[in-house]
Write a structure and sequence with these properties.
By secondary structure, the protein is of the alpha/beta class. It is about 45% helix and about 15% strand. It has a single domain, classed as 3-Layer(aba) Sandwich (Rossmann fold). The chain has a seven-stranded parallel β-sheet, with helices on both faces. Strand 2, helix 3 and strand 3 form a beta-alpha-beta unit. Helix 2 packs parallel to helix 3. The radius of gyration is 22 Å and the shape is globular. The structure holds guanosine-5'-triphosphate and magnesium ion.
Length: about 240
């Protein structure tokens, strides 16, 4: 074999071994992710059992940045704090703006800052609840970090999940994010006070949500005007 050919063969073998290593690394990453999710789901089940044992209802809220999660929770808190003792756990990357907003409606809040993480996980919820006297609460709400992808990886141990999108995100937002609609019990299409100006096709949004999850309840709301907040509370069965 010529020297040139020998170098080529050596280079090909080197490349093959790198490719093999890459596949091994990919498999390892997938396996680790699955393990993390399995551990998370186990903890989420334990959290849910603890809450159920005490008769505490729990709901988590997911949705894109600015869809109106906090605004809707503010309206719900305004209504329900007259009857129930409520804890709201808010997830955000850095600030405690949302907790401060919701706290003004006579409910207790806790802000979790996730730093670089794009979603809450069951461990976050566990860390909060283990330091609380759960006998103090009738209902626990969780507002996740604004994101339509990451929260689908982590159950939080709640009974129900609400997904909130708004008409300012366009009529394709549901179609583009099937996973969270499959995992939610109620889909809220918010900011309908802007419908006349934007002309978003909300019939398509409703149809898409139902096509991903025939059991999902779909409701249009305006947190700004308070439209259909009573209906949403009815859907939550509280
Ligand atoms: N016109 C209109 N504006 C709304 C409505 N709901 C929320 N907003 C506004 O939309 C902006 C974002 O609302 P938030 O409640 O902070 O949204 P969010 O989903 O909690 O946002 P993040 O927590 O940052 O992901 C604010 O300026 C709200 O006042 C609504 O029904 N109609
Ligand atoms: Mg918010």
């Amino acid at each position: 074999m010529s020297e040139k050919r020998e170098r080529e063969v050596h280079r090909i073998k080197e490349l093959e071994s790198i490719n093999l290593a890459r596949e091994e690394i990919r498999d390892l990453v997938i396996e680790t992710k699955k393990e993390v999710e399995r551990d998370n789901d186990l903890l989420a089940e334990q959290i849910n059992d603890e809450l159920n044992k005490r008769g505490i209802k729990s709901i988590d809220v997911v949705g894109a940045i600015g869809a109106g999660k906090t605004a809707i929770l503010e309206k719900i808190a305004e209504e329900l704090s007259k009857k129930y003792s409520i804890l709201v756990i808010c997830g955000d990357i850095t600030t405690r703006v949302d907790a401060d907003r919701i706290e003004q409606h006579n409910v207790e809040t806790v802000q979790i800052n996730t730093g670089r993480e794009c979603a809450l996980n069951a461990y976050h919820i566990y860390q909060i609840l283990k330091n609380k006297d759960l006998n103090n609460y009738d209902i626990i709400f969780v507002e996740n970090v604004g994101n339509l992808i990451c929260p689908s990886d982590f159950k939080l141990g709640t009974d129900k999940r609400i997904i909130i999108v708004s008409i300012t995100e366009g009529e394709w937002v549901v179609e583009k994010h099937p996973m969270l609609f499959k995992m939610s019990d109620i889909a809220v299409i918010n900011k309908i006070d802007l419908l006349e100006r934007l002309g978003t096709d909300i019939t398509k949004m409703e149809k898409d949500a139902k096509s991903f999850n025939p059991n999902i309840k779909v409701i249009t709301t305006s947190a700004k005007k308070g439209t259909n907040i009573d209906k949403l509370i009815e859907y939550l069965d509280l």
